[in-house]
Amino acid sequence: MSRVSTRGRLAALLLLGGFTAWSIAFVVLYAVLSVGCAYGWDAMQAGPVSLNRLVLTLVWIGSLVALAIMLAGVVRGAAGPGRVSRFLRHAGIALTALALAATAANFFMVTTMSTCL
To answer: Which pTM does this prediction carry?
Structure first.
């Protein structure tokens, strides 16, 4: 049996980390939406918006912040010479940046659209 090297783990993190975080944000947002609708959070006011919209927006912003931190970490962590190949470094940075952009674009609707039908 051989052990996975640190370099292999770093490669997996670079290539899969961003969209794994995107998928976690998707599942959490969907769960919060479902719980909020089931418990009537859309009818409860939290300032100028419903409680459901407030919680969804906070989760969305939290996922954007988490992905931005992840992107900064990927840029810093993958920059070390000899850690991973240049192609892998650039691919990891690009994929994490795309995951951040996809999170911003895909989930922006929680701030504007109807939450419960």
So the answer is: 0.86
